[in-house]
Amino acid sequence: MDSDPPTILEVRDLSVGYGGTAIVRGVDFAMGEGEIFVIMGPSGCGKTTVLKTILGLIPPVRGDVAFRGRSIRDPEGLSLFRRSSGMVFQQGALLNSASIEENVSLPLTEHTVFPPGIVRETVRMKLAQVGLLAFAGRRPGEISGGMRKRAGIARALAIEPELLLFDEPTGGLDPITADGIDNLILRLRDELGMSMLVVTHELASVFKIADRILMLRDGQVAALGDRDDLRRSGDEGVRGFVNRQAGSEAGAADGFLAEVEGGGA
Ligand SMILES: Nc1ncnc2c1ncn2[C@@H]1O[C@H](COP(=O)(O)OP(=O)(O)OP(=O)(O)O)[C@@H](O)[C@H]1O
Ligand SMILES: [Mg+2]
User: Fewest CB atoms within 10 Å of the CB: 41, 104, 138, 196?
Assistant: First the structure.
């Protein structure tokens, strides 16, 4: 039977601005449990602004964000949301002076009363989940960019959240390393049933991981749907943006064939 999963996060008619200038207007969506929901769009369209507002870091001018039906404007709702969600920041936001293991243990030593043995076991399990157990003793400066992203994910996982939020999880990585992070995101959803909200402008990631996509343009929703909905969008700008990748791959293949056919037999 195909029944819709319960809603985990709801964003209603959200408008946000900085110092009186509207940046985001009327953004509206609901995310189901276990869904990978992607917010994409060109640089400067307001993706990070939406994410920061969802996290309660910027107060909206209008609209609301609810986690499990409870507004994050209500302090108890915000507290529930913070206990149940993990954020993976673009730069990893790791402490450079601490080991990877210490970095991942921070949320547990700060927000729980777990005894040290349990913290250690939990941290090692999270490091294993992201493939970093062998690097537990290294400092952030002693591992690669892709590994730092994994460490940031392990730290967000430490409190066993129901929802993970990512800002540009594959930003600045080479395509192979980025693909590894995308696979990790898919695995966390498939194996742990986690819900994920991912902000990105990397089309390869969008097409690989997204169940549904919200495309932002100049702070407004230009499209909302799955890949095929966006590819068939009546909006030329949306079609242009999402077909760019497919188009460039097809274009490259066409060029290659023309070359072979023209220059060959
Ligand atoms: N603290 C701030 N004060 C004033 N304006 C801001 C602030 N932060 C962002 N902006 C502006 O808001 C707009 C949206 O920025 P935002 O960072 O949300 O975009 P983005 O979609 O995440 O871009 P990118 O893909 O480059 O990360 C931009 O025009 C930016 O200049
Ligand atoms: Mg951003």
Answer: 138
